[in-house]
């Protein structure tokens, strides 16, 4: 677990910090380069040491073979005792026990030569005849006086091995016949030199990697610092501090970047200030016009009510005009109320009156208010709610209005098909979904469905008397409750709106109790959050 946590921590640093990635990449690539160069140097040095020592050993061996052969050729011994004494003198002359230049000697009789059973083959005390393989001895016998050598591994008393070279050559001894002279050279000194060089290369490589890593860290820190400052200033600007700017120092590319960034920030500040001023003017205009229209609208509505009440006494054409005027005055008043509500949201003057209520009851009241309209459109409302109370801390009036807007929208575009209303609940959230099987919407239409006064099809006649602000107000009501209002839609398959709210003020939820799209639309996976 600790190893996994350490790996996760390291990966997190690698993903989050550009400087860490730069240092890691530089050290890894430098390490690979040093490994290749160090391997090449180690091989070259080792090969050079071996070839140099081998040339020296072959020269020494050649002189030794000539010396031994000349001593035997110049000898005048005629008996075996004198010959054995001469044979025994070869080993002490040629062997060496020096730790820096160890050499062992063996003078072995060639099989199949003159039979002189009394003569013994002199060898060094620690000579291991197992180093002389039958194939190697066969090559020596067939060499016709040439030196033959072979690389071997020499064992030591502590059980370790080190490299060596065995050199062999045939020697002709009077009376005794054909012999073979073998010289075993220990290359332990050269191996120790190579080991020292390799350790030095490894140590130097590690130190060099540390130096490269430190230099890379400081260089990248110097280069990344302006980027970090730019990111920090960008965050400050994004959070609303439009006065934040980058320091401009020098004349290099970083200074040019800071200058360009500051110019961009100045331009954005001017545009944002201008747009904010225009937005405030628009909001104030809507608020002022809405308030100013209330008085004349009240007067018009009272006059219209009088005319509408006496419509039976009017001529048919005048009676029809009175009825149309009455309907349009009501729609005008609804529009004015929605404009006033939007202006209050824009001014930040809306506060939710939260209390624990049964969401099932709120949904039921909204359905009762819209059921006559659904019947007139030929739509049936199918309800799926959990048993018992679905308690949530909400502003019941606003949530009921929100659900009414969703139902009215579904009835308007449902083309007389059934409308499904579902309620869900989890430990942290409650949800309501309204789904129709009508005309649906495209992705571009879904992206604008919560815009003010926007209509999916401007040529389509609005039959439910909506103001075009219902979904925009619904989204504001959702944000007031710290919830989600999401929509799924597909052309000619219908649409589904899902409202998700926290069960209590301040609760945090990450998933809605209801699916979107609903199970009946599960084959379509397109979802857009509003």
Overall body shape: rod-shaped
Computed structural class? alpha+beta
Radius of gyration: 50 Å
Q: What is the strand content?
A: 15-25%
Amino-to-carboxy terminus distance: 41 Å
Tally of helical runs: 12
Q: Summarize the helix and strand pattern as letters.
A: HHHHEHEEEHHHEHEEHEEHHEEE
Number of strands: 12
Major pleated sheet: 6 strands, mixed
| Whole-number mean pLDDT | 81
Adjacency order of strands in the biggest sheet: 6-8-9-11-10-12
What helical percentage do the residues reach?
Answer: 40-55%
- In terms of per-residue confidence, which ranges show pLDDT below 50 for 5 or more consecutive residues? 523-530
Estimate nothing, just give the exact number of structural domains.
3
């Amino acid at each position: 677990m600790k190893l996994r946590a350490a790996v996760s921590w390291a990966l997190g640093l690698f993903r989050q910090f550009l400087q860490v990635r730069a240092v890691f990449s530089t050290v890894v690539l430098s390490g690979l380069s040093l490994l290749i160069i160090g391997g090449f140097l180690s091989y070259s040095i080792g090969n050079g040491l071996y070839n140099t020592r081998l040339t020296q050993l072959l020269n020494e061996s050649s002189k030794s073979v000539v010396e031994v052969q000349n001593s035997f050729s110049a000898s005048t011994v005629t008996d075996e005792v004198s010959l054995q004494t001469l044979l025994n003198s070869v080993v002490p002359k040629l062997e060496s026990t020096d730790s820096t230049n160890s050499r062992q000697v063996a003078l072995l009789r060639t099989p199949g030569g003159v039979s002189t059973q009394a003569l013994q083959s002199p060898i060094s005390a620690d000579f291991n005849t197992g180093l002389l393989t039958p194939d190697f001895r066969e090559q020596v016998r067939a060499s016709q006086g040439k030196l033959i050598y072979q690389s071997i591994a020499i064992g030591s008393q502590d059980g370790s091995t080190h490299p060596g070279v065995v050199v062999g050559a045939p020697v002709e001894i009077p009376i005794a016949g054909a012999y073979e002279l073998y010289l075993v050279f220990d290359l332990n000194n050269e191996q120790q030199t190579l080991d020292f060089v390799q350790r030095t290369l490894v140590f130097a490589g590690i130190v060099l990697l540390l130096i490269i890593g430190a230099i890379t860290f400081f260089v990248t820190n110097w280069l990344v610092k302006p980027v970090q400052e730019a990111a920090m200033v960008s965050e400050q600007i994004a959070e609303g501090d439009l006065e934040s700017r980058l320091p401009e120092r020098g004349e290099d590319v970083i200074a040019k970047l800071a200058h360009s960034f500051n110019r961009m920030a100045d331009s954005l500040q001017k545009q944002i200030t201008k747009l904010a001023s225009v937005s405030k003017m628009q909001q104030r205009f809507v608020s002022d016009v809405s308030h100013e229209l209330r008085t004349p609208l009240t007067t018009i509505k009272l006059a219209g009510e009088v005319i509408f009440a006496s419509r039976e006494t009017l001529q048919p054409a005048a009676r029809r005009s009175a009825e149309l005027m009455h309907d349009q005055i009501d729609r005008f008043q609804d529009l004015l109320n929605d404009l006033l509500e939007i202006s209050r949201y824009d001014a930040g003057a809306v506060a939710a009156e939260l209390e624990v209520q049964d969401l099932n009851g709120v949904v039921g009241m909204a359905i009762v208010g819209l059921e006559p309209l659904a019947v007139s459109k030929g739509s049936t409302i199918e309800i799926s709610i959990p048993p018992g109370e679905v308690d949530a801390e909400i502003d019941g009036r606003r949530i009921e209005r929100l659900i009414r807007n969703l139902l009215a929208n579904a009835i308007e575009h449902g083309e007389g098909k059934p409308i499904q209303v579902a309620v869900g609940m989890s430990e942290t959230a409650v949800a309501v979904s309204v789904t129709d099987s009508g005309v649906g919407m495209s992705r571009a239409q879904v992206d604008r469905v919560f815009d003010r006064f926007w209509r999916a099809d401007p040529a389509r006649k609005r039959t439910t008397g909506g103001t075009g602000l219902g979904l925009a107000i619904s989204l504001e009501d959702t944000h007031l409750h710290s919830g989600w209002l999401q929509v799924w839609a597909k052309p000619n398959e219908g649409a589904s709106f899902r409202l998700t709210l926290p069960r209590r003020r301040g609760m945090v939820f990450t998933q809605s109790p209801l699916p979107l799209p609903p199970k009946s639309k599960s084959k379509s996976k397109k979802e857009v959050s509003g």
